[in-house]
From TrEMBL:
The organism's taxonomic lineage, starting at the top: Eukaryota, Viridiplantae, Streptophyta, Embryophyta, Tracheophyta
Region (Disordered): 1-68, 94-143
Protein name in the entry: Uncharacterized protein
Composition bias type Low complexity, residue spans: 8-17, 41-54
Gene: LOC100777797
InterPro entries, alphabetized: TMEM214 (IPR019308)
Chain segments annotated as transmembrane: none
Bias kind Basic and acidic residues: ranges: 120-134
Length: 453
């Protein structure tokens, strides 16, 4: 027995010193002397036993005496194998999704493709595309429409139907009727820009004779007659109110343009200049058809500083010229009361005197003006040229020789006709006696001033 134990120990010691680094992964197999006897029998099968040592048997154990340890190792290897296979499947799916990108990258690596150049090209293409879009987004410029072109499109029949409609709707609201009437022409001239109707420049640089027909000369006869017939049915009060309203609108536009020219940042209520075409058209028609409406607003224009000043004078002159077209006597009546006093007033200067003279010269140059005015010397109990105006006329026509100016000769030319109108009337009438007394009083006063000088 001792020999057997010794032999077994020696065998185990030998095997422990000869550590195997094979398939047993360092685990050592213990054998006994009894099994040594069977080595010869099992020698032929030893290779097969080692070959099958890692194979599973039906009961889930490993063959051989190291089955427990090998089972743990195989389970671990199986888990690692599954992890590797799952990772391969994930990599394969990622490769399929990014194949185009990798293909481009391989192309970049193989052919030394310059990716930065591609970005530059794309940026250039994008820039051209954006530039093309901007060009396409630009709205085509609208063709310029002149006052004449816009006026030619106004249909008299359409205007007549419009006037019938609003007259039925606002029969008792005359002020609203006049505004709606103006709105119709405002729409008709809405395409006319301010550059096509620079009325401020036109009034400042043109003669009174030229601006008198501006812009009414472009209105067709049919439209003009339709409008005049409708205006004739409006009340004097509504027309007088309209005159002040439209004049305020025109002067507001004048003030706005002056502020823009001066570079002022002050906010101003600005009325669109293109709407002023309609305002001038309607205002001119009202003044020509109902000139008496001007007489009722003359005191307001004369007394309010709102309507005074050299910059506003061309507009006032234009209004009186329109009334004179409708009735010469109304034109001279307004001239003598509202314009002639300016000549000797604080605002009197060569420019203002020229405008005042241009208007009266135009009135007196009208065919048959002298007989018409002389016969209308007294209008509704009032003289066209009151004694106060006649006194001013004498002073500016016959000034001291040292104060004569260029305008003096022009006053001398119109004086005979104006004197005849100022002194016109039935001889021996009460009105003539009053005029005689006023002139006599003025003559005495003038003679005293002459003696003092």
């Amino acid at each position: 027995m001792e020999e057997k134990h010794a032999a077994a120990n020696e065998s185990a010691h030998a095997e422990s010193n000869g550590v195997s680094h094979g398939a047993d992964h360092g685990w050592q197999k213990v054998t006994y002397a009894k099994k040594q006897k069977k080595k010869t029998v099992n020698a032929a099968n030893s290779a097969d036993s080692r070959a099958n040592s890692n194979k599973l048997v039906p009961n889930g154990t490993l063959s051989g005496n190291d089955g427990v340890f090998r089972s743990l190792e195989l389970q671990s290897e199986d888990r690692r194998r599954k992890i590797v296979e799952a990772k391969k499947l994930a990599d394969a799916a990622y490769d399929d999704e990014d194949a185009p990108l990798r293909s481009k990258q391989r192309h970049h690596d193989d052919d030394e493709y310059d990716y930065d150049d591609e970005n530059v090209d794309r940026s250039a293409e994008n820039g051209k595309a954006e530039e093309a879009k901007k060009v396409k987004q630009k709205k085509p410029k609208k063709p310029k429409v002149t006052v004449a072109e816009a006026a030619a499109k106004i249909d008299a029949a359409d205007l007549g139907a419009f006037l019938v409609e609003i007259s039925g709707s606002f029969e008792e609201q005359q002020d609203i009727l006049m505004m709606r009437f103006t709105d119709y022409f405002g729409r008709a001239f809405s395409a006319v820009t301010a550059s096509q109707f620079p009325w401020v420049k036109l009034f400042r640089e043109s003669t009174v004779a030229k601006i008198t027909d501006t812009p009414l000369s472009h209105i067709s006869d049919a439209v003009y007659k339709t409008s005049m017939d409708w205006i004739n049915q409006r009340s004097p009060e509504a027309l007088s109110t309209f005159l002040i309203w439209s004049l305020d609108s025109i002067l507001a536009d004048l003030g706005s343009q002056q502020n823009v020219a001066k570079g002022s940042k002050k906010a101003v209520q600005q009325v669109s200049s293109k709407s002023q075409v309609a305002m001038f058209v309607v205002l001119a028609m009202v003044l020509r058809r109902k000139p008496d409406a001007l007489i009722s607003v003359l005191p307001t224009l004369r007394e309010s500083t709102k309507y005074q000043g050299l910059d506003k004078l061309p507009v006032i002159v234009w209004m009186i010229a329109q009334a004179a077209v409708g009735d010469l006597s109304v034109g001279l009546y307004a001239w003598a009361r509202n314009l002639l006093p300016i000549v000797i007033g604080k605002s009197g200067n060569p420019q203002s005197r020229d405008l005042v003279l241009q208007l009266v010269e135009k009135i007196l140059s009208t065919p048959k003006a002298r007989p018409v005015l002389v016969n209308s010397a007294v209008r509704k109990g009032e003289r066209l040229i009151p004694s106060s105006a006649f006194e001013i006329l004498v002073r500016v026509t016959f000034p001291p020789s040292s104060t004569r100016v260029k305008a003096t000769e022009r006053f001398e030319a119109i004086y005979p006709t104006l004197k005849e109108v100022a002194l016109g009337g039935s001889a021996g009438s009460k009105a003539m006696k009053q005029v005689a007394l006023q002139i006599f009083s003025f003559a005495i006063k003038a003679a005293g001033e002459s003696m003092q000088t």
